[in-house]
Amino acid sequence: IQANGSTASSSSSAMSISVTDPSSLPCSSDNEDDDKQSFASNLIVVLDTNECLIHSQFLSTKDKYRQYKLDRPTTTSPYATDEESSSIISTSLQSFCMSLPDGDLVHVNKRPNLDVFLADITQKYEMHVFTAAMEVYAALLLDTLDPRGNMIQRRFHREC
């Protein structure tokens, strides 16, 4: 998406979106138009949260905040030994737990170097975030990832 309304295209994507007036988009905006930050580019970067920026696991019996992906293929480890994989994971994995309003506990693993990536990308581009999750989960998650509220300009979730 480009902020000026023209469509950005990519050979790896079958879908492109054109937005003439970003303020007409549904859902929340963390930054008001009068506090609009200027960026090095007029491109808007749209990122997916689950399985891209983070991986979360609900510790309750049923996850009612996200869509389930049925028939997800199992993967085999690319590492030669369990020791090799655990040494890599332990040095680069950041995680946190969050408690939802109804008491459900969620364990969240951040992608390695996510904070560095977000800080760098948001200096250059306007960033929007999408998730198929419900707002009650998405808002708490994104508030944790962007505690000062200065990186994510728009949030899109299941109810949008």
Number of strands: 7
**Percent range of helical residues:** 10-25%
Rg, alpha carbons: 17 Å
| Principal-axis shape | globular
Order of helices and strands: EEEHEEHEHE
Topology:
Blueprint: E1 28-29, E2 44-48, E3 54-58, H1 82-92, E4 94-99, E5 105-110, H2 114-124, E6 126-130, H3 135-145, E7 152-156
Parallel strand pairs: 2-6, 6-7
Antiparallel strand pairs: 1-7, 3-5, 4-5
Features:
disordered N terminus; alpha/beta; globular; 7 strands; 160 residues; three-stranded antiparallel beta sheet; 21% strand; four-stranded mixed beta sheet; 3 helices
Quick summary of this structure?
The chain has helices at residues 82-92, 114-124, 135-145; strands at 28-29, 44-48, 54-58, 94-99, 105-110, 126-130, 152-156. The model is unreliable at 1-20 and 30-34 (pLDDT under 50). It is an alpha/beta fold and 160 residues long.
